[in-house]
Each structure stands twice: as C-alpha cells, then as structure tokens.
C-alpha cells in the first residue's frame, strides 16, 4: 500500500514546544497519514542564517531543531518515509547522513535542489549529474536510495535557447544521464505545473524511477472583492484547486510509488497548516 505522508516543513510554524509538536504529529496520524518526511535542517540544530533563509522563503522551521524527533515520531505512531538533505552535507559527512537515515528507519535520502545554482548552464548540470551518481553510489552501499526533488527551475531551457517541449532542459538531462541504479526521483507536480509543464507527462517519463511523489493543488483563494480581474495563484488543499489531482494520484499508484507526500508552505485555509493538511487528507483518503 502506498504511504500517505506530510512534509515536515508544513508544520514548522506551529511546532513551538515538544508537547505541542507531538499533538501536531498525532493530528497528522488521526487525519489518515501514516508517514512524515523529515528535513535534516529541522531535526538538529542549524546555523542562524539557515533559519533566516528558510523563513524568508516562507518555510519557517520554528524551534524544531531542539526537539527529540526520534521520540516524537515514535510516540505518534508515524513512520519516516524519507529525509531531505542538501547534497553538500551528503558529500562532506556521508556517515552522519547514513546514520541519520538508519536511526529513523528510512531508506530514502532526498536532495532538495541546489541553492544559487546555474541550472541554465548545461556543463554545470552535467557536473551535478556526476555528483549525484557518486553520492547515490555511496548511499546504495548502505542500502539507502538517493532521490532528487525538483522545483520549477529544472525546466528552464539551457542558455535560454528555443527548444521543443521537455527538451534541452536540466530535468531531462538529470533523468537521462543519472544512473538509475544510484539516483531516482521525488517528483513535485506543483512546481512542474508552475513551470508550464504537464506533470502527467513527467510521471510517464519517470515511471518506476518516481520513488516518492510531492503533491499539492494549485489555484486561487478569493476572500474579498479583487481590485482587478486577476488573482494570484498559489498552493491549495487537494481538490480545492485546478490541477488534475485525481489523475496524478492514479498515475503515481500505477508507478508503484512508495509515498505520496503533501507539502504546501503557505496559503493554508484559515492560515492554519493543521487544518489545511486535515482537509487535504479527506481528499487523499478518498483516492487511496
């Protein structure tokens, strides 16, 4: 059975104490999720600048790094489907990453994209392919899978050149030139859609290499009269937006994806991430 999970970043703003964090995790479990996806920078103390940058990006981490996440996850009854780590941490201290994965009983480490990276430079992306293959090979020796998580930037055209659909872009190169024995994918359909790509096409291409699937809906929430006839798109609870979520879930199931992981950073109903994930769970539970 495919796992239903929540990305830890969703709950960062409401994890004020260990006691209230356990209540949040219990709410996730009660809503019907069986797993959580953790972030390396949220389960251990991190530099101040990291916390500032994540908050500025709309992803507050709260005080999470001070908590005993092993105990909290165990008490809640949730599993850990995967852990997000940056590639530099994997390369510089792979033993710690391996030990972390084993301690949380997960086999999936996810690279979450590269910070300040020239994705439109083909040579730089080719170097990234080599780094991913090397890191994935080392993790595989310890029975851990390396997955790559996309955003929208992987779908830019190299050197801003004209190109056919899904050609001459970083994501195609990452798929075609990484070694599938060592590198697979955690596909995020929201960011593909944001880049103007049909996410169903990407899932067809990835097929069994899509080990995990990040999901959120995309649309607009209007609470009062708009000044103009245009309103801003943002993430939405599942079934409340305009993405073909039902077909995406069915496609993910047909690929034997291990986990469908909910993630949205903001624009939550009533500005409450717990209410938001509970509403999305109702939709997700009806499809899985």
Q: Provide a count of the helices.
A: 11
Please name the fourth-level CATH homologous superfamily.
Divalent-metal-dependent TIM barrel enzymes
How do the strands of the widest beta sheet line up side by side?
Answer: 1-2-3-4-5-6-7-10
What is the radius of gyration? 18 Å
Q: Assign the CATH architecture.
A: Alpha-Beta Barrel
Q: How many β-strand stretches?
A: 10
Q: How much beta, percentage-wise?
A: 15-25%
Q: Let me know the largest β-sheet.
A: 8 strands, parallel, barrel
Mean pLDDT: 93
Overview of the structural elements:
The chain is of the alpha/beta class. It has one domain: Divalent-metal-dependent TIM barrel enzymes (TIM Barrel, Alpha-Beta Barrel). Helix content is 39%, strand content 17%. The protein is built from eleven helices and ten strands. It has an eight-stranded parallel β-barrel with strand order 1-2-3-4-5-6-7-10, surrounded by four helices. Strands 8-9 form a two-stranded antiparallel sheet. The longest helix is centred in the middle third of the chain and has 19 residues. It starts with a strand and ends with a helix. The relative contact order is 0.14. The mean pLDDT is 93.
């Amino acid at each position: 059975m495919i796992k239903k999970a929540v990305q830890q970043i969703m709950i960062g703003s409401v994890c004020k104490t260990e006691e209230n964090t356990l209540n949040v995790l219990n709410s996730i479990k009660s809503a019907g999720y069986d797993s959580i996806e953790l972030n390396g920078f949220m389960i251990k103390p991190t530099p101040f600048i990291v916390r500032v940058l994540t908050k500025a990006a709309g992803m507050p981490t709260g005080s999470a790094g001070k908590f005993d996440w092993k105990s909290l996850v165990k008490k809640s009854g949730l599993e850990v489907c995967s852990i997000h780590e940056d590639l530099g941490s994997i390369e510089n201290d792979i033993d710690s990453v391996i030990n972390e994965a084993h301690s949380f009983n997960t086999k999936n480490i996810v690279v979450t994209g590269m910070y300040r990276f020239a994705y439109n430079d083909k040579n730089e992306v080719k170097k990234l392919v080599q780094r991913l293959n090397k890191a994935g090979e080392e993790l595989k020796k310890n029975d851990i899978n390396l997955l790559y998580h996309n955003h929208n930037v992987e779908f830019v055209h190299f050197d801003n050149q004209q190109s056919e659909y899904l050609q001459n872009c970083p994501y195609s190169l990452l798929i075609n030139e990484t070694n599938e024995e060592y590198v697979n994918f955690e596909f995020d359909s929201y960011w593909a859609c944001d880049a103007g790509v049909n996410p169903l096409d990407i899932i067809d291409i990835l097929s069994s290499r899509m080990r995990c699937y990040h999901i959120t809906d995309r649309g607009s929430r209007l609470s009062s009269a708009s000044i103009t006839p245009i309103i801003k798109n943002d993430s939405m609870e599942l079934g409340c937006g305009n993405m073909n979520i039902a077909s995406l879930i069915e496609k993910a199931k047909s690929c034997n994806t291990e986990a469908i992981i909910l993630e949205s950073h903001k624009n939550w109903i009533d500005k409450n991430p717990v209410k938001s994930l509970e509403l999305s769970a109702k939709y997700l539970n009806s499809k899985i």
